[in-house]
Amino acid sequence: MLSTHFDMKDLGEASYFLGIKILRDRANGVLKLSQRTYIEKILKRFNMHNCRSTKAPIVKGDKFSKAQCPQNDDKREEIRTVPYSFVVGSLMYAQVCTRLDIAFVVGMLGWYLSNPRSQHWKVAKKVLRYLQGTKDLMLTYQCTSLLDVVGFCDADFTGCIDDKKSTTGYIFMMAGGAVSWKSVKQTLTTSSTMEAEYVACYEACCHDMWMQNFISALGVVDSNCRPLKLFCDNSAVVAFSKNTRSISRSKHIDVKFYFVKEKVVESLIDIKHISTNSMLADPLTKDLPIIVFQEHVSQMGLLEA
User: Per the UniProt record, which residue ranges are transmembrane (predicted)?
Assistant: First the structure.
């Protein structure tokens, strides 16, 4: 496609792209993306290449707040000697490219970049220890005759201790692996779980509209032939998205969130309910028990060779 507009030289199949190793198994119809080399590089850079591994970057019950941040110059001086911001920046690139399993904790660590505490530094090192034990995980895609994009959206109501704002998480899957994801703190304060989940649903729908146009332009999937399925584990959100009437308890939700209803009416998006246990976006919004976290990671398409 690009060769019709630019002078280009075909160097054959790509094996590396911006630090991401591309592995193909055409016989079995499998494509894998690995950042093992990049992970080993950052582990060595921060002298963590011989560290003991851990099973999860964050576990159920871990909580962090600004109250933990240094309150005087002496304590701030202590933390200035550690490369906290460099570690978080390095982790950010990994989670953006293939390691969505650390997206939530890396986003949380980013909240304290301006004034971190030793506790936050310990968590950053724990993420490195987690990568030490899981550097062989690869984002894996399987050949399939049905290239549908399926979305999952979730929210952690008032997850932030400091300002009581919720966390949005969404993930889009295709061919057995994640193709797009996000974990971010919401910009507005919601007053119920339903509202927090609806905000997450809106964010996912906006991204879905962009992604459908992008995929259609590639000509790989006819994304306009059927509505995209978006799964949510909150039944009230599913009902509200299909209800054309306003509900008194939700009137203060900004008008832009009626965008979701509009797309449902236009049959561009089909919002369906799913059980919380099957919600793939859960690790993008909150800390989970280790076993549950590991199950979700594999279901996202992060598999070992």
Answer: none
